[in-house]
């Protein structure tokens, strides 16, 4: 069973006794910086020249300096910028400002797990990752609650790295909900696998294939859109609330029977064999290397895929149909 930690297991005064730099002020960065500050922690935000989020951070009462200045001032440095640029910012602004006893923190293990960032031996290296987007992390904190988080230590130079990570997690509300102990390897590999095989990749491909099958058989795209994409939210909400059981309790018996007999014909042993190959390529670093090559090579294929899918009948149909849905929060109309 997973090891869980709550408020009583964490000592807030540890992080209150440190100087924290939050590098980046995006989804996670704003939530961490504001909640650390509200928890009585000495925090500064490190942002690059020409940063779009600088004005917002300052408006919200935070002191903004360059990433290098923030890293030099602080003894806990939390890196909250996009994963593909972290190694470059680390080389340029953080590395030379690390002293023995400092702590380098992340919210995702990607760069450390795959060796793009190699922190020096005298530094604690840990991970505190809320299991939710930044705006939810911040809102829950403000409401006196918290989003569950995971924490891990990759390198324990001081012997106190995990207590420091728990203290940090407490300051952003994580231990109010519960913090699960993990490792950089487990967090990184399961995160990549989940988003590729199930959450993003698997789901997108399933929705597209179902939609195409109906449209190719002569059904109207609008009807196919409702059946294969729109209604997915209802199903996922039920799973989120009560697992597969609540979903199956809520749908008709006919839908439930179809679930049992047809699901395994769609996701077959061959699909699972391919999932295992995907996992192997994540574990051996192939995926990470290919993605970094693509990113730093100008995102050519990435942009091709993006354009292709934005022109797909599923997307153009959805764009029109969503105009009929006054309750759907979108900025397309
Ligand atoms: P964002 O994409 O929201 O980060 C954007 C921030 O990074 C902005 O402040 C941006 O500046 C800044 N930035 C961009 N380039 C640079 C640079 N060269 N130097 C300094 N700052 C720069 O990141 P997320 O919050 O999504 O992700 C941060 C980390 O958290 C990642 O490791 C991610 O995997 C992890 N994570 C994210 C979650 C999420 O919900 N998004 C959930 C859990 C973990 P500006 O725009 O002002 O120019
Ligand atoms: Mg991810
Ligand atoms: Mg139906």
TrEMBL record:
UniProt key word Magnesium: yes
Pfam families: KARI_C (PF01450), KARI_N (PF07991)
Lipid metabolism listed as a keyword: no
List of residues binding substrate: 252
Keywords linked to the UniProt accession: Amino-acid biosynthesis, Branched-chain amino acid biosynthesis, Magnesium, Metal-binding, NADP, Oxidoreductase
Cofactor requirements of the protein: Mg(2+)
Active site: 108
HAMAP family with a match to the protein in the record: IlvC
PANTHER family: KETOL-ACID REDUCTOISOMERASE, MITOCHONDRIAL
General function of this protein: Involved in the biosynthesis of branched-chain amino acids (BCAA). Catalyzes an alkyl-migration followed by a ketol-acid reduction of (S)-2-acetolactate (S2AL) to yield (R)-2,3-dihydroxy-isovalerate. In the isomerase reaction, S2AL is rearranged via a Mg-dependent methyl migration to produce 3-hydroxy-3-methyl-2-ketobutyrate (HMKB). In the reductase reaction, this 2-ketoacid undergoes a metal-dependent reduction by NADPH to yield (R)-2,3-dihydroxy-isovalerate.
Name the UniProt record assigns to this protein: Ketol-acid reductoisomerase (NADP(+))
Lineage: Bacteria, Bacillati, Actinomycetota, Actinomycetes, Kitasatosporales
